[in-house]
């Protein structure tokens, strides 16, 4: 299953290529050329059929001063030594196929992963250096935090919020939300969804969901989620056709799976937030010695109504009984 954070970190540049040069300038690469035209390249870099290799995002860039080069964007959540074999392959394959320089860009949320990714990938014998690949890494240590990004740079602000993840300051996130609310409805929802999906399971994602009023229906119908998952379901269609099934059946399978994945991702995010809220409620009630029956515990823990959970969370700070929490009148036997 494709994770929302992984997809956000590399597809942001695919969907907003106008931010490419501004992003590299923001991390201090003032010599990065201003882009004039960007073309999305196929992400399949397979040469031998049984060995499938796919980059996250590859883009052919033409700069205003005539430079032509390829940017390969790879999203990396944790250290993975297998990538130190595949990344140089991507670079060499694309260079030989298109005949222009290739720059490998690795995007990370975790500082330790970014430090790992930044290490040169060296191909050498004891007596000779054959080649070396130097990833260009975007991570929390070099992408400016929200407080250092001008309010006019909304797209860069969105990227910063995602890359800094749980380290994003809530007040800075609130400022970004305020600026996004000034945009037209569709752009506002799209960018809010980018941030939400990029923050993934971080607790601050719940705050963002409230700030931007992103609900389950927004996620379920999000064209961003559908576009991301459609690409993966096209692979399933091709696989089914290769096995000799009718094209209509194969496409139907992919279409149905895409719908299920969209709904599953939306439901999963809401359920994850609901579970975190429920655990907070139960923790507070336990600390305040408010006893709950098994059915009452189940009622809280299985609820996916985020608004109701918020009301219970607020109430948990002051109630002294389950009856108060659920708004019930005390039973006659409990009244002195």
Automatic annotation (TrEMBL):
Protein name: Transposase (putative) YhgA-like domain-containing protein
């Amino acid at each position: 299953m494709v994770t929302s954070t992984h997809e956000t970190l590399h597809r942001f540049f695919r969907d907003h290529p106008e931010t490419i040069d501004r992003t590299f300038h923001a991390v201090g690469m003032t010599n990065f050329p201003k882009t004039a035209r960007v073309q999305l390249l196929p992400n399949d870099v397979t040469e031998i059929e049984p060995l499938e290799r796919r980059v996250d995002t590859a883009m052919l860039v033409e700069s205003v001063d005539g430079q032509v080069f390829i940017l390969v964007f790879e999203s990396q959540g944790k250290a993975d030594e297998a990538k130190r074999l595949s990344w140089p392959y991507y670079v060499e394959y694309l260079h030989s196929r298109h005949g222009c320089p290739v720059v490998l860009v690795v995007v990370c949320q975790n500082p330790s992963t970014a430090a790992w990714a930044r290490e040169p990938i060296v191909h050498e014998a004891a007596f000779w250096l054959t080649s070396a690949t130097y990833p260009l890494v975007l991570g929390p240590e070099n992408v400016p935090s929200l407080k250092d990004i001008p309010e006019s740079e909304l797209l860069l602000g969105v990227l910063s919020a995602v890359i800094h993840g749980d380290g994003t300051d809530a007040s800075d996130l609130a400022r970004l939300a305020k600026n996004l609310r000034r945009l037209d409805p569709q752009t506002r929802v799209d960018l809010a969804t980018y941030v939400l999906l990029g923050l993934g399971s971080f607790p601050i994602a719940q705050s963002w969901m409230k700030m931007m009023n992103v609900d389950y229906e927004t996620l379920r119908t999000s064209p961003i989620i559908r576009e991301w998952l459609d690409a993966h379901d096209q692979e399933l269609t091709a696989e089914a056709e290769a096995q000799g099934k009718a094209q209509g059946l194969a496409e139907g399978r992919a279409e149905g799976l895409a719908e299920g994945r969209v709904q599953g991702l939306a439901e999963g995010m809401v359920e994850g937030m609901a579970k975190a809220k429920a655990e907070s409620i139960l923790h507070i009630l336990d600390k305040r010695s408010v006893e709950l029956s098994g059915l009452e515990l189940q009622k809280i823990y299985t609820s996916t109504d985020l608004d109701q959970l918020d009301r219970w969370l607020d109430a948990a700070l002051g109630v002294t009984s389950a009856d108060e929490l659920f708004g019930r009148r005390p039973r006659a036997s409990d009244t002195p």
